[in-house]
Every structure is written in C-alpha cells, then in structure tokens.
Amino acid sequence: MSNTAGSDLLKTFKLKTKQQELLIRVSILCLVYILAFITRLFSVLRYESMIHEFDPYFNYRTTLYLTQNGFYDFWNWFDSESWYPLGRIIGGTLYPGLMVTAALIYRLLHFLRFAVHIREVCVLTAPFFASNTTLVAYFFGKEIWDSGAGLVAAILIAVCPGYISRSVAGSYDNEGVAIFALLFTFYLFVKAVNTGSLAWGLASAFGYFYMVSAWGGYVFIINLIPLYVLVLLITGRYSMRLYVAYNCMYVLGMLLAMQIRFVGFQHVQSGEHMAAMGVFFLMQVFYFLDWVKHMLSDTKLFQAFLRITVTCAVAVGGVALGVGTVSGYISPWTGRFYSLLDPTYAKDHIPIIASVSEHQPTAWSSFMFDFHILLFLFPAGVYFCFKRLSDATMFIVMYGLTSLYFAGVMVRLILVATPAVCLISAIAVSATVKNLTVLLRSKNKVVQTGSTKGTSSAKASSKASLDQSQPFQKNGAMALLFGAFYLLSKYATHCTWVTSEAYSSPSIVLAARGAHGNRVIFDDYREAYFWLRQNTPPDAKVMSWWDYGYQITAMGNRTVIVDNNTWNNTHIATVGRAMSSYEDEAYEIMRSLDVDYVLVVFGGVTGYSSDDINKFLWMVRIGGGVFPVIKEPDYLVNGEYRVDKGAAPKMLNCLMYKLCYYRFGELVTEYGKPPGYDRARGVEIGNKDIKLEHLEEAFTTSNWIVRIYKVKPPNNRW
Amino acid sequence: MGRTPSSKEDAQALFHSLRSAYAATPVNLKIIDLYVGFAVFTALIQVVYMAIVGSFPFNSFLSGVLSCVGTAVLAVCLRIQVNKENKDFKDLPPERAFADFVLCNLVLHLVIMNFLG
C-alpha cells in the first residue's frame, strides 16, 4: 500500500508521527502561500508591472508623496492639484493604512539594501497580503474547527476568485490590505472570546485599528461584533470571557480608531456606530444584574431589583438615543451604508452612488462565477457548524450569513463574504473527508494490525470499530472521496481560468486580437497622460469626467477639476452640466473654472464600450440633480438613447457629442460601412459636420480613445 | 396574612441582603471595586463639567472620559479574572491577569496622551 511506502520514507528520517504531521502541514502551508502569490501575477506577466484601474493611482500618488516627504507632511497634506479651485485635504480624507504599509515595506527593503522602486512595492503589496490572509485563514479554521479545516480554508481562499478580483498584482487598493485586516481582527476576537484573555483582546483592538486605518468597510466589523454579542446574550451562551473580550476590544479599539483623522469622532456621533455603544451599555447592565443575582440568595428580592434596574436602564437609554437622533447630534446612517439596507435608496436620491458599476445588485451569475462549488458547500458547512455549536462556530455562521446578504445587495461586497464562505465550506469539506477517511482507514487498520505488529503510522482514532456487515462501505467511501477530489480540482481549474480571463486586466491598457490572431495593445490612456505631462504648461487645468481624475493627477501631473473622490457633488454636477450644454454655455462654465484643457474618452474607433458617450446619461442625471436646467428627456428620443440621425437635437449639439465626434465623420472605421460609423454603438453618427468655436483640438491618441482639446482664450475686443 | 410588603420594606430588605452578601467578598476584590468606583465617579465629574462649560475641544473631553471609563472596564475585567469563583479562569495565575491589566492600561493611556491634543 502507498501508505506504508510513504511512511517508510518518512521513517527513514526518524520522524515520529506528530513530526510527520507537522512537516506535512508546514509544507502545505508554504505551498499555499506561494500559490496565493503567483496566481495573482497574470497581468504582470502579460503586460508589465503597472498600477491598474483608477483608485489605485491615487493610492500610488499618496504613497509616493509619503516616501518622499515623510509622515508628518503626508498627514497634514493639503492638495491644490485636484478639485480646482477648492483643493482637497488629503491628510484628513484618506485611510492611511495601505500607504503606510507599503511605505514600511519599501523602507524595510531599502534597509536590507534591495533598491526597488516604490511602484514595484505598490504593485505587489496586494498579492503579498493575500498570502498572509491564507495563513490567517489557516489559524482561524484551526480555532473554529480543527487544523484540517484550517488547511482547506487556506487553500480555498488562496485561489477564490471573489478575493482575487480585488487583490491581483497591480490592484493597489484598500481592499487588498483590508481583507487581511478584517480576517485577522475576527480571528483575534474569536481567540479572545475563546480564551478570555485581556492580551488577546488587546491584540484584537490593534487588529481593529489596522482595519479602520485601511478601509471604510470597518463599519461591518463594528456592527457584526455587537450583533454577535447580542445573539450570544439572547441565546444564553454568555460567559465571563465574552465580557472581557468585548469590553477590552470595544474601548481600546474605539480609542485607537479615533486617531485616524478621517474617522474622527464618528464612533460616538454617527448612527452606524451606535449599535456597538448600545451593546456596550447593555453588557454592563446585564453583567451587573448577573453579579447581583449571584450575590443575592433571595430570588423575590432580585426580581424586584431586576424590574427597577431594567426599567431605569431602558428609559435612560431610550431617552438618550431619542434626544440624540432628534437633535441631530447622532447623525443618521450615511447614504453609502443606508443604501445597503434599502437598495432602492441610491437610485432615487444619490445618483453618484447609483452610477458606480460596482454598487449594482449582484446577479446569480456573479455568485457562481466568484464562488463555484463553495456555493453549495456553504449550506453544508452551516449544517456542520450547527451540529457542533460553540462560540466560534456561531460567530462564523453569523459572519457568513450577514456578509452573504450584503453580497447580494452590492457586487463589490462579494469580497467581504469570501473569507466567511471559504471558511464554512472548508468545514464542510474537512468534516466530510474526515468521515470518509475514517471509514477507509478503520477498515485498513483492521486488516493491517492483523498482518503487522501495530505500525505507528495508523494513529487514526479507531473508536468506530467497523463491522464487516457492509462490504461495499469501503468502496463507497473511496468513490465519494474520489468525487470530492474531482470537485476540488475542478474548482482549482475554474479559479485559475477566471483569474486569467476576467480579473487580470489592468483597465488602463486594453488588449484585443488582431485579424491574424496576434495581440494588439491599446496604450492610449498612458499616451494621452504623458502627452499632457510633456506638452502643457505646469499650471494647466484639465477638465474631464471624474473617472479619470486620479489618473490625470498621478500620471499627467496636472491639476484637475473633479476626481474619483467624489466628495463634492455640486462640483461634479457643474462639470456634468458643462459637458451636457451647448458649446457657448459650456464655454462660460469653463471660463469660470479656469479650464485650459478638456479630456474626453471615445470608443467609437476601437469599439471600446466604457467611453464617455456611454457614460453620458449619468453626466446628465448628476448635472440635472443640481441644475434643473439640464433635463434628461431632452437627450432621449422616445426614452431611447441614440447618437445617429434620429437623435435628439440637444444631444447632437452638446459639448460632449461635439468633442467626441469632431472630425469623426471623415473617418472610415470598418470595411463596408460609411464614414463616421461608431463601432461602440453600432450606428452611423448623426452630426458629421462639427465645428468648434471656443475649443481647438490639441491631441488625439493613435486609436482615438482619448481626445484632448484646448480651451481658447476669449476673443479680443475691438 | 396575604398582605404583600410595601416597596419601602422591599428596598430595605434588598439593601440589607446586598450589603451582607458584599461584606463576604475577599479584600483584594473590594480594593478593585473601590478603584472602579473612583474611576466612574471621576468620569461623572467630567461629564458634569462638560455640561456646564461646553464640549470644546471635543477630543480632550472624549479622551478624559474614555480614559476613566476604559480603566474602570479594565479593572472589572481584572476582577473577573482574579475572582476565584469564576470557573472559566481557574487556571489563570493572578500575576498574569495583573500583567495583562497593566499592559492594557499602558496602551490605553498612551493613546489617550496622543488624543488629548
């Protein structure tokens, strides 16, 4: 049997069984660590080591500033290069965790005399932390169930597409570090609840501090943990350890969190954090009553005392909450988080939140795409957790259920659900495999101990002595094990395929297949930004839609009017109004904002569909939300959005249309189609003869994707 | 005699019962309770002062109140861990509990010093 051959090999190293097990575990963890890192490197291999998408460019720029100017300049930085003429207090409006982490890694590497550029550190930060997350998942699984479940959890989370989507190499965004911090905090808290030690509670407070410094999603932690405490109190599983763990974490964590300027006093003033405070006070009352009950021998007296105290506490709490909410001192839930509870809220009230594609509700296909077999392993895992209910399994079930609910509301939050789904599925896999192998090995042991004299390799618990009355049990177990192995290998294949096809594109560089199957690269974005950097005066101001703001400041090094921070809706609406108005009105607005250059993104030549014409209706809606002069029906024909001859006249003459289609009417884009055929919309454009009066074309990239126009100064008066 | 005792007698009986039960607790726990009471009392004084004078600068007020509340809560945790009646902690040496208490207080007050402004 291969069992004895392997154990013979290990025995030649004179290892005892425990050491063999340790060796296997450590080697599995090392391999998983490396696997988690290298599976995220597709885009570095295919393109180059660069930062992807939009938000990471801001993070990169701030990290660069931090490494060049030091922490105090970074913490107090006021940036006048964005949101002209308002500027932005960067030090007070970002989550510094990611930047400080990358800067520390950079400093460490330089200290060890590795002369790497900060960009390489930034690109590879997310995969590095993904590897660390697999280690945390192992320890968490070990805490909840056993080390086998921990190993499976580490493997599942190393390749799970839900996590990979936001942590590929190059995706230098808060989530890459935040998921590690989230899982780490939860692990430390569960460990604190299990041991009741103040030291672990302190560690979980620091974990929470790291999470608060890294991502705005920390609100999930500060609401889930009080909810968990409440559930434990209600179901009667409370204990002294819970008191120690929660109080230490809450008080120290809250204090540490308030050191981040962006968070400020929200822990005592914002409605989203009130649950934690409420549970804190509830716990004091609850345990005080418990203590009094323990001291009093007479239950009748205790009932009286209980009545008085509970009514007092509820009255005081209710009055405080009511006064706080009504007077506005406790601010209500902000739109971002309120739209999680009421998904229709954002569409009606806050178009900017509704327009982000990541905030849309999740389709079933996204769940299947991101989770694959974990979707049906999850309910199985929940069943196992309920079979062996403890404080820790109750926590992971609550985490899984709440995070899955939120993942159903917003696509982006599949990321938060991924660790829970992986852990619970790992429990299912581990428990099933364990049961099956027990069946297999107990049969084996009965055979072996007959032939050999008690080998030390079979240390499996032979409590279940199997009777030979079911001869096919071993075969059934073998078949089921083979099926489990097949499923898991299919999962691994699927995850790698998804990573390679869907989640490894840098978004700033586009690739396509040419007519002969060769790969064609469109590097137009960087071409345009570098043109801006090299050919415009250093104090030029660029107006574009807010999507490109971060990239323009980071790569083009020019001042922008609005960028991805979207903190000022009116400013964005002004830009939206300018883009949707006729050229004369737009010129007035641009003069008032001191705009020198206008940048638009156009996909008609290449068929690129995320261009400004497809985003135009959002510009109209956001502009119309603040300036009622812009009305969305003006741009539609019978409710339909068209750019061809039958389009609305306002659409055919607005600034965005003119800037995108200037000189496009002379261009033949596709064989057999008339000139001016828009490949992204699939129609021939309506207005081919465009004349610009106040702007002139400054630069168009080689595939017409980015077009830059210079705003002409006003005519001389005579 | 089915007359139920009035609430005043009820309260007095409650008070006496509590007092006699509390007198039986060991001295080290009573010292911790005294410390907790002192911390909570200090926090109350600060809140009353804030009600009179106003809450600017808010971070100073918060750091003052939270340092009192924090150290009170940590002392209660210490009391729980040192109390011989708690079965969860019977194999935790009291020196370790006290060392944890000191460490957490150290972190608490360092953060408070940063937050005072």
Automatic annotation (TrEMBL), chain A:
Residues 541-599 form the STT3/PglB/AglB core domain. GO terms for molecular function: dolichyl-diphosphooligosaccharide-protein glycotransferase activity; metal ion binding. It comes from the Eukaryota. The chain crosses the membrane at residues 22-42, 89-109, 121-141, 147-165, 177-202, 208-231, 243-262, 274-292, 304-330, 367-385, 392-408. Its EC number is 2.4.99.18. The keyword Glycoprotein applies. Belongs to the STT3 family. Component of the oligosaccharyltransferase (OST) complex. This is dolichyl-diphosphooligosaccharide--protein glycotransferase. The lineage of its organism: Eukaryota, Viridiplantae, Streptophyta, Embryophyta, Tracheophyta. The gene is LOC111295690.
Automatic annotation (TrEMBL), chain B:
It is a multi-pass membrane protein. Its main location: endoplasmic reticulum. It comes from the Eukaryota. The keyword Membrane applies. Keywords: Apoptosis, Endoplasmic reticulum, Membrane, Transmembrane, Transmembrane helix. The chain crosses the membrane at residues 34-52, 58-78, 98-116. One of its GO terms (cellular component) is oligosaccharyltransferase complex. InterPro entries: DAD/Ost2 (IPR003038). It holds the Pfam family DAD. GO terms for biological process: protein N-linked glycosylation. It is found in: Endoplasmic reticulum membrane. Component of the oligosaccharyltransferase (OST) complex. This is Dolichyl-diphosphooligosaccharide--protein glycosyltransferase subunit DAD1. It comes from Durio zibethinus (Durian).
